[in-house]
Amino acid sequence: MSTDFSDALVSSDWLAQHLTDPDIKILDCTWHHPSTNLDGRTQYRGRHLPGSVHFDIDQVADKSTPLPHMLPTAEEFAHKVGLLGIGNSDRVIVYDRHYGGSAAGRVWWTFRVFGHDNVALLDGGFGKWTKEKLPAEMTPVRPAPASFTASFTPGLIATSADVQSLLQSGGQLIDARGPGKFDGTQADVFTFKRQGHIPGAINLPWADLVDPDTGVLLAPDALAARFTAAGIDLSKPIVTTCASGITSCMLALALYRLGVPNAAVYDGSWAEWSQLDDTAAAA
């Protein structure tokens, strides 16, 4: 059976018509770096899509590492997702409040890593939803726990060693950060040991893949043109990276839309690479 690569996204119109479907489970994935003094859970409590529950990428994460929001084990993911009321037969819809939906993109990728492909991002996110005056509510949702079984898909995640092997073998590493952070002239919100980028990486800022007015992902032909302009060959192996494994997932989603479903995300990204003694930084 062929894959429908359009299933990575749902429109606000579609979701408005399917809000009450029993198999639709909506996750508000809003996340902010602590330095912003904003809190995704607080914003969720203020207003959220009807029936949605909050998914915190810093809590559904590996707590044994100092790196931010790294993937948890399959068992931990299954446990926490089950507590959110999600079962294996559910269609999961993710959104957040950021332009383009980067944290929701991270959650989209995480579900796929743990074997749940029936997941889609709300195109345009909460911003487009509210601009269209679609319904929202303030009452927190307390779902009944469900049973969720996770199965790890190692091909969707890359380690630092995988990145080194990829570059040595002629593969492509795409960095989703903006040009200032990529070349080391702009500091990140994370405190990094070094600035710059992984030598050999190609810079394709994830914001270039999003409509600046609506926050929706560009149409496939426009996406393809962005990748082509950056010199990326979609037929060759690809790993995506960024600062801490969030916006790189938006590149992975865009690649999925272009028929490249197996692009891996470097989970540690620059947060890890910048600390390794045996790696170099390029500026």
Automatic annotation (TrEMBL):
<keyword id="KW-0677">Repeat</keyword>
<dbReference type="InterPro" id="IPR045078">
    <property type="entry name" value="TST/MPST-like"/>
</dbReference>
<dbReference type="InterPro" id="IPR001307">
    <property type="entry name" value="Thiosulphate_STrfase_CS"/>
</dbReference>
<dbReference type="InterPro" id="IPR036873">
    <property type="entry name" value="Rhodanese-like_dom_sf"/>
</dbReference>
<dbReference type="InterPro" id="IPR001763">
    <property type="entry name" value="Rhodanese-like_dom"/>
</dbReference>
<feature type="domain" description="Rhodanese">
    <location>
        <begin position="167"/>
        <end position="282"/>
    </location>
</feature>
<feature type="domain" description="Rhodanese">
    <location>
        <begin position="20"/>
        <end position="138"/>
    </location>
</feature>
<dbReference type="Pfam" id="PF00581">
    <property type="entry name" value="Rhodanese"/>
</dbReference>
<protein>
    <recommendedName>
        <fullName>Sulfurtransferase</fullName>
    </recommendedName>
</protein>
<keyword id="KW-0808">Transferase</keyword>
